[in-house]
Amino acid sequence: MCIRPVFFDLDGKVATRRQILAHLGRMSAVGVTGLGLSLVPMVRTCAGEVVDFIGGPPVADIAPRQLSKHVWMIYAQDAFPTAENHGMMANILFVVTGKGVVVVDTGASLQIGQMALRMIKKITPQPVVAVFNSHFHGDHWLGNHAFGEALGPQLPIYSLDYTTAQINGHEGDLWRSLMERWTNQSTMGTQVTPPNKSTSHGQEFRFGDVTLKMHFYGQAHTKGDLSVEIVEDKVFHVGDLAMENRIANIDDGSYPGTFNYFDKLQQSGGSDALWVPCHGNPRKDLLATYGTFLKGIWEPSVQAFKNDMPIEKAKALVLQDPRVASRAKSMLGFDQNIGKYTSLAYLEAERETF
Ligand SMILES: [Zn+2]
Fold first, then answer.
1. What angle (nearest 5°) sits at the alpha carbon of residue 16, between those of residues 12 and 20?
2. CA 169 / ligand 1 centre spacing (Å)
3. Which residues surround ligand 1, an ion (CB under 5 A)?
């Protein structure tokens, strides 16, 4: 990769043939001590070429959308990663406060995080002062790399301890490599940058005129889903606890745990809160609509188990349930996942019973 000798001048521009010859002339006049005073050979070129080779392309700008007085969202049109979308599949939220910008979830790659940083600069000259990660799935934190790189290791990146442990364990690198595979290497160059600060349920952060309150009510989408409330704006970031029109991964989660979490959030937020998912649009009825859909999977599965029906019968009951059937045609990922997630509901019903 690094066999072509190209020279740079000290401004980083590629040197002309005339500059190189002049430099070589000076070298012969002053000896090797003159090396590097006016031209820096090769080393930066090699590093640059390696970055070009292993780094994926930049992600196209997405203009942020203002959701409330302080809260903005960079919206992901797609719900799943592809080569075409470069992994841009999860919304990125940022809060413009009197004490800097706070980002909640950073996207699925270095390149997506860099795009988010560009977009934040279009809205405010203030620096990013803190990042929060909702949970350990890679589309929510792989973009940390861009923020750590731009703002330094002292930038606080908060998450629940469970999430940080998963990212520091095998899940971190697993998600990094999966995202590369799913995007045909578009996310290459992304490094695992785990959270470096712990937070927990009930903690409040004051950033000038804005308060951020942490919520956590046990296993739901994963065993560690942080919901961040932007108190003054009545906005809740709900990570992947609920999705607008995509069926959520529940491999690491719990159906009853999700219903319990929704009840607790709804008690905190009341009827007027805006719930912001990472997949799909924010809605005031998001917990109600997604909760109804999930109950259409859970309740027939429990019924099938209690009546000693086989798992296939549970699937048939779920598909017939109007709460599921009404959304089957339009919900993204439905056909690929409904069988698996019904099985998970059936198995959880079995565990709950014993
Ligand atoms: Zn997730």
1. 95
2. 17
3. 137, 240
CA torsion sign, 125 to 131 to 135 to 141? positive
CB 2 within 8 A of CB 45: yes
The tens-digit pLDDT sequence of the chain (354 residues) is 333 333 333 333 444 444 444 443 433 333 333 333 333 333 333 444 454 457 999 999 999 999 999 999 999 999 999 999 999 999 999 999 999 999 999 999 999 999 999 999 999 999 999 999 999 999 999 999 999 999 999 999 999 999 999 999 999 999 999 999 999 999 999 999 999 999 999 999 999 999 999 999 999 999 999 999 999 999 999 999 999 999 888 999 999 999 999 999 999 999 899 999 999 999 999 999 999 999 999 999 999 999 999 999 999 999 999 999 999 999 999 999 999 999 999 999 999 876
Number of domains in the chain: 3
Tell me which DSSP letter residue 33 carries.
G
Question: How far apart are the CA of 253 and the centre of ligand 1, in A?
Answer: 10
Backbone angles phi, psi at 242, to 5 degrees: -140, 150
217 and 325, same domain (yes or no): no
Span from the CA of 221 to the centroid of ligand 1 (angstroms)? 7
CA of 24 to the centre of ligand 1 (A): 57
1 within some domain: no
161: number of Cβ within 10 Å: 12
181 and 252 in a single domain? The answer is yes
Residues 167 and 278 in one domain: yes
The alpha carbon of 248 and the centre of ligand 1 are apart by a number of angstroms equal to 7
Give 68 Cα–ligand 1 centroid separation in angstroms: 24
pTM of the model: 0.84
Distance 237 CA to ligand 1 centre (A): 13
Domain span including residue 291? 286-354
